[in-house]
Amino acid sequence: GKYRVVSTKSMPGTRWINLLIEQDCRVEICTQKKTILSVEDIIALIGDKCDGVIGQLTEDWGETLFSALSRAGGKAFSNMAVGYNNVDVNAANKYGVAVGNTPGVLTETTAELAASLSLAAARRIVEADEFMRAGLYDGWLPHLFVGNLLKGQTVGVIGAGRIGSAYARMMIEGFKMNLIYYDLYQSTRLEKFVTAYGEFLKANGEQPVTWRRAATMDEVLREADVISLHPILDKTTYHLINKDSLATMKKEAILVNCSRGPVVDEVALVEHLKHNPMFRVGLDVFEEEPYMKPGLSDMKNAIVVPHIASASKWTREGMATLAALNVLGKIKGYPVWSDPNRVEPFLNGNVPPPAACPSIVNAKVLSLPVSKL
Ligand code: GLV
Ligand code: GLV
């Protein structure tokens, strides 16, 4: 291959590798056992010549790495994630490196995990499973693991972008929940969907669902029974959920976070869980992954899973493919993947010039001569 593309991790599927190999790239995949690579580890992977890197959300892509990549002749970096709080886009701009992310392909998968956590929390599925396995079940009882009925309750969505809107649709249509959402932008498609669904229910003689776009986040916190967080993480959303916002929520509310850990003040959350046994959370992300704040793992009213919201086979293969296309597109000057859901292929405006892109979409899967570092 004429171009050297490095992936800091092995990624699912083979399509992403073939796309690169077929287009003059030599693909090198880091096979180091260590889960989280340091900046120094990645500098070593970049080496003297590197045209592009596919990296992960656990890595700190700042000034140091972009200058190293640029010195090695690199033009492109793609995060294998939709979130890019681990990437300093200004630093990438400064060194002339295009930055890509992988939106669209993970929308439904991530929303489905948020829905799963909402249901698991509402119906206390994890606690009940532990109870069963511990041999504590000695017969049916009217009070055993009584939880919440979602139907007719209000789902609160904070951040109604692609994922937040998909989650809202699932909870509304699946469980006939009313909606209250907070976002800086109006979500017209979501509003149209709820309105139409409400009319459908009415036409069938059922109670229609209601919806409202809240003027403040506090309205959502006060009114919703289940609240799911879907904002991006930046300075404005750091500790968006803190001691005060928790105190604003209903005592028996359910909070779900599949966005980024630091959106929630986890120490305040543990304190809140301790004092409000009927308050429940489902967490996919944590403030300082892979760690949990002290006390969280002891809380029966918390369900915790290890950042797996985008972890379906289809999605992870799609994310790897998009990340490869981001890097390839920039290296070869191809137009970017034209998925209409994918509105920010290059975050810093370094969109490659339009040109024909011969075999990207229908690349066949070959057996893989992958070189290893
Ligand atoms: C995963 O967390 C992502 O941002 O894609
Ligand atoms: C996230 O921002 C998404 O909706 O893909």
UniProtKB/TrEMBL annotation:
Q: Which residues cross the membrane?
A: none
Q: Which GO terms describe its cellular component?
A: cytosol; peroxisome
**GO biological process terms held by the UniProt record:** oxidative photosynthetic carbon pathway
Q: What is its EC number?
A: 1.1.1.29
* D-isomer specific 2-hydroxyacid dehydrogenase catalytic domain location: 22-334
Q: Where in the cell is it found?
A: Peroxisome
**InterPro entries in UniProt:** D-isomer_2-hydroxyacid_DH, D-isomer_2_OHA_DH_cat_dom, D-isomer_DH_CS1, D-isomer_DH_NAD-bd, NAD(P)-bd_dom_sf
Recite the UniProt keywords alphabetically: Glycolate pathway, NAD, Oxidoreductase, Peroxisome, Photorespiration
| Catalytic function, reaction form | (R)-glycerate + NAD(+) = 3-hydroxypyruvate + NADH + H(+)
**Pathway linked to the protein:** Photosynthesis; photorespiration; 3-phospho-D-glycerate from glycine: step 3/4
Q: Which GO terms describe its molecular function?
A: glyoxylate reductase (NADPH) activity; hydroxypyruvate reductase (NADH) activity; NAD binding
Q: Which part of the chain is the D-isomer specific 2-hydroxyacid dehydrogenase NAD-binding domain?
A: 117-309
PANTHER family tied to this protein: 2-HYDROXYACID DEHYDROGENASE-RELATED (PTHR10996), GLYOXYLATE REDUCTASE 1 (PTHR10996:SF257)
Q: What is this protein called?
A: glycerate dehydrogenase
Per the record, the gene is LOC115735787
